[in-house]
């Protein structure tokens, strides 16, 4: 073994002392020393401990084995994922956010105020009002819309009373969505009792 090491070092020393010559592309692929592969493997095997030798001997078999493993997902899991996505699409929609506040009392009173105002004002839609808490804010939102344009139309009406209202993407209640063909509008105002008396 020592003889091989000394021979290797001597060959390296002799090759480094040689004359300088240009290297062509064909020479670049050629190894510096012409060493027999069996001798190189014997040398490597002698220098390795038992664990390294075991890894070296089984390296190609292990890579072949793990390269062919297929990670198939059972069909039942694929169906479940598809169902969850369609379920999420069912509840995806838009609402109109009226206010975002840290004061829960303000959110509660605004919810009651909006309910009374909406019952009095809207003709063909009774919007539900929700208070959502996402720390540190209480958000008062109203309506359940699948169509963004319908939510925008509704927000224009809400802005008459609550100018800070805006449309937000939210999880909706599909059963409470208004008909698509029903336009959002205020109720026709009946003449007040005072106007009738004065006429």
CATH architecture of the domain at 90-176: 2-Layer Sandwich
Instruction: Describe the strand arrangement of the main beta sheet, using strand numbers.
Output: 2-3-1-4
Note the total helix count: 8
Order of helices and strands: HHHHHEHEEHEH
State the share of residues found in helices, binned by percent. 40-55%
Mean pLDDT: 78
Instruction: Write the CATH homologous superfamily of the domain at 90-176.
Output: Sporulation related repeat
Q: What oligomeric state do these chains adopt?
A: single chain
Key attributes of the depicted protein:
single chain; 199 residues; alpha+beta; Alpha-Beta Plaits; four-stranded antiparallel β-sheet; 8 helices; 16% strand
Care to give the gist of this entry?
This protein has helices at residues 2-16, 25-29, 37-47, 50-67, 75-91, 104-121, 148-158, 193-198; strands at residues 92-101, 129-134, 137-145, 166-171. The chain has 199 residues and is of the alpha+beta class. A 4-stranded antiparallel sheet has the order 2-3-1-4.
Task: Describe the protein.
The structure is a single chain. The protein is of the alpha+beta class. 51% of the residues lie in helices and 16% in strands. The longest helix has 18 residues. 14% of the residues are buried. The C terminus is likely disordered.
Blueprint (SSEs and pairs):
Elements (H helix, E strand, L loop, with lengths): L1 H15 L8 H5 L7 H11 L2 H18 L7 H17 E10 L2 H18 L7 E6 L2 E9 L2 H11 L7 E6 L21 H6 L1
Antiparallel strand pairs: 1-3, 1-4, 2-3
